Amino acid sequence: MSTDTPPPVQSNKLVEVVSGITVRLAGDSGDGMQLLGTQLTNTSALAGNDVATFPDFPAEIRAPRGTRAGVSGFQVQFAAHEVHTPGDTLDALVAMNPAALVTNLSDLRPGGLLIVDEDSFEAKDLKLANLSTNPLEEPWTENYRLAKVPMTKLTRTAVAELGLSMKEADRCRNFFAMGMVYWLYGRDMDATMRFIKAKFSRLPEVQEANERALKAGWAFGETTELLGTSYQVEKAELPPGKYRNIMGNQALAWGLMTAANLSKKELFYGSYPITPASDILHELCKFKNYGVCTVQAEDEIAAVCAAIGAAYGGSMAVTTSSGPGIALKAEAMGLAVMIELPLLVINVQRGGPSTGLPTKTEQADLLQMLHGRNGEAPIPVLAAQSPGDCFDTAIEAWRIATQFMVPVVILSDGYIANGAEPWRVPDIAAMDPISIEHPTEFNHGDEFWPYARDRNLARPWAIPGTPNLMHRVGGLEKQDGTGNVSYDPDNHEKMVKTRAQKVANIARVIPPQKVNGPESGELLVLSWGGTYGACHTAVTKAMDAGLSVAHCHLRHMNPFPANLGEILSRYEQVLVPELNMGQLRMLIRDRFLVDAIGYNKVQGKPFSVSELLDKICEMAATESNKLCESKAG
Amino acid sequence: MSSELPVLKASDFASDQDIRWCPGCGDYSILAQMKKMLPDLGLPQEQIVFISGIGCSSRFPYYMNTYGMHSIHGRAPAFATGLRVTRPDLKVFVITGDGDSLSIGGNHFIHMLRRNVDVTMVLFNNRIYGLTKGQYSPTSPEGQVTKSTPMGSVDHPLNPISVALGAEAGFIARSVDSNIKHLAATLYRAAQHRGTSLVEVYQNCNVFNDGAFSYAQDKATRADTTLELEHGKPMIFGKNRDKGVRLNGLRPEVVDLSTGISHDDLLFHDEQADTALVHILAKMRHPEMPEPIGVFRDVEKGIFEDQVRGQLNTAVEKKGAGDLVKLFASGETWDVE
Ligand SMILES: Cc1ncc(C[n+]2csc(CCOP(=O)(O)OP(=O)(O)O)c2C)c(N)n1
Ligand code: SF4
């Protein structure tokens, strides 16, 4: 790959070496900001930086142009060290119009670089953004390094010879902006050139125009004084291996395919579109030649039911959704509990309740997944912590589902789903196979008992087509062993307890919970799911500042790891940061009688490192408060 | 292959479970005819799966010595779809009631039919909710007094055949629980059809809706109140086969054959006919008209799971079998030493 080759044109300007950069690209939702951000992410990862991203877009596909509601943003942090979040405050903000400027400016650090397209600050643009005066002419601009670039005009000039319409020419503006950003951070344009070539292969003029715009942006940075210095971010030290960028939903899809492969199963995927889970469906649909069978059902209920039908037939069955769709699946999930079949149910959480904030992130479906069914219907729940981690979570979930014959829930969220990070390509040959046995013989004298149990309390997965093992499953309570319908009160209680014990037994096979930091101390930060990056970074900073803090991040939400209670007892205080009103905290208090303190945010936004750090300092810094202020901030 | 199989009897399809329907319920007859018909399909028990929803009728799978799933209310078509897509080697039956398939499961009902999943669906229509003890159902006639409609139902009833036609179902039939020969023959034909086949069966719930279909059930009246559809034959009915159905414009009318009207003037049944004609048949209701029983429509069309699996095969032919190692190494990658 070309990652080691320098950019095509070597800059003659001053280059400042920095350890990391956080930049946000913001514009109208039609401006191609997500594309720009994805390209910058890929290119930065190819340059060997560690990267983390945060795409943020409106729920409306085409919100009114130029308005505040229509602003789409993409934030990326790339660094010469490991990063786990897309960054708190921005080193640079690219704002394509006034609406993007006013809605994003507060995140730019004082002295940060602000690049705007000055051509889109005309009176009509200001009006769309609900502004009475031009913000670029106000005194606040002195707090930042403002670069007013006539991007629209420059782009039009760059593509003038190609005979495109004005509208088509203006569409290349994002590539001009990209060129400037690439110059600014010494990024190689090769990968993006390849992208343009592939994407517009059928439209040669458009391809040419975008290439020209990209190069013109780069040349603009190099030739004018407007952007000043450029920056260099060295490669990050990551564990050796082959890397690629991966997004959360993509990693889930690939993890599911890998799990199917490891268990020699065909993957059946039943789903109904919903933000932010749909991309898993889009991804899996591409892989029919891998034996991935996808069905877009008529609704979420049909999707999960079709998956259960496939599981009964012996396939690896998966269904995905987000909170509202999971609510619809609840009854069928209860059936899966009763008929004791392996099934994966993935919830990519978004802001709720009801339709809530469909494109924003939240962690508020934990209790829904744990308890949102009628009757005593325990289901194991796993939570992924980052885009790349989705891959491993999918495989582990399927391992558990088949070993214990249970439906298993995977929790992800909008932040993980759409975020990207470098991912070390795993060696499939070195992964443990997932062995599954389908019985072919009687298991009880000269009878087959569909609810006979092994030492995990799992029942046999006999599949239709097997001679002599005919049996019936269903939602009515079954007599243990024979599987016959039974209303016997004692049997029901026994079955309720058996199903619960089966889930509890999973704690025997999951690895003991790890803690990052001191074995005991003043404060333990206990987190789960997509807040991993922010919590990890904040705790690491606090530890560096000398605070007595440790971090424990949960993947297994049900059952909890066997040693969790013991870990909690070693710290004076427990802080549980969550993007909900305190769901894990409630479970922890209930299960372990620990007076855990919540730190809760429900704004549709992920935690920033600094707000967590403030909270940690407040709780853990007895006499080290000053230390905290000076070092951690 | 079937020649090597032992010849199965109806009793081979009976499970060892006690049957718990009310004495006199029409469900018994449907169960009996199903068991009697199944050996003719030449399939071993292990290749057959019965999937049901919830309702009295949906207890059916427990009584069959085959594979089975008693699922959740209204969703049996979805379970069957998932099973068929991954296991096209299995013969799948869906057992459902009028409440199960037309109320809570209406959505899945039409979608299975329009997708044409290769499933035989038997809809037990008793025009009442049996299991929940007698509330009106989507097929209950207007004005019906039930536990939940003390002043009479104000809903316009659904006609399952019309709904199925609307969903462009390939095979649609109707039979009656007590007309056992007709029922067995109709079930057999439905099971032979490739694609979704729907059989609506008039089923007597003698506890909550006794006699709802007595006109079609009673030996004394049924020849005059029902019309046995036969492909390619004129529509003749009546105890003495002295009545026929002909078209007057777009309206069907009953004519007296003793007045010299010839068979050629009558409607001829065509199972492959344009749906407009079948709609006319679907709309024929007692007492104005004889109610057609038998096969309304039998046309072949693309089968959902064949097409889904066909795409999997085409993808392999075009791109080769998937290789995860190659996939992971595709696109932009870089090495860290
Ligand atoms: C989700 C859900 N809602 C309601 C019920 C209650 N319920 C069970 S069967 C039934 C109606 C059954 O009527 P039908 O399908 O006509 O079957 P029948 O009992 O008459 O054979 C209802 C409402 C249920 N089991 N599940
Ligand atoms: S309630 Fe009606 S439908 Fe149900 S078993 Fe009794 S008679 Fe049959």
Automatic annotation (TrEMBL), chain A:
Presence of keyword Oxidoreductase: yes
Keyword Thylakoid tagged: no
Domain Pyruvate flavodoxin/ferredoxin oxidoreductase pyrimidine binding: from-to ranges: 268-475
Keywords, alphabetical: Oxidoreductase
EC number: 1.2.-.-
Domain Pyruvate/ketoisovalerate oxidoreductase catalytic: 30-217
CDD domains, A to Z: TPP_PYR_PFOR_IOR-alpha_like
Primary enzyme class: oxidoreductase
Domain of life: Bacteria
InterPro entries in the cross-refs: 2-oxoacid/accept_OxRdtase_asu, Pyruvate:ferred/Flavod_OxRd, Pyrv/ketoisovalerate_OxRed_cat, Pyrv_Fd/Flavodoxin_OxRdtase_N, Pyrv_flavodox_OxRed_cen, THDP-binding, Transketo_C/PFOR_II
GO molecular function annotation: oxidoreductase activity, acting on the aldehyde or oxo group of donors
One GO BP: response to oxidative stress
Protein's recorded name: 2-oxoglutarate oxidoreductase subunit KorA
Species this chain originates from: Aureliella helgolandensis
TrEMBL record, chain B:
One matching Pfam family: TPP_enzyme_C
InterPro entries: 2-oxoacid:Fd_oxidoreductase, THDP-binding, TPP_enzyme_TPP-bd
Record key words, sorted: Oxidoreductase
Entry GO MF terms: oxidoreductase activity, acting on the aldehyde or oxo group of donors, iron-sulfur protein as acceptor; thiamine pyrophosphate binding
Matches recorded under SUPFAM superfamilies: Thiamin diphosphate-binding fold (THDP-binding) (SSF52518)
One annotated GO biological process: cellular respiration
Domain named Thiamine pyrophosphate enzyme TPP-binding: residues: 54-201
EC numbers: 1.2.-.-
Family matches, as PANTHER family: 2-OXOGLUTARATE OXIDOREDUCTASE SUBUNIT KORB (PTHR48084:SF4), 2-OXOGLUTARATE OXIDOREDUCTASE SUBUNIT KORB-RELATED (PTHR48084)
Protein name from the UniProt record: 2-oxoglutarate oxidoreductase subunit KorB
Species in which this protein is naturally found: Aureliella helgolandensis
Gene encoding the protein: korB
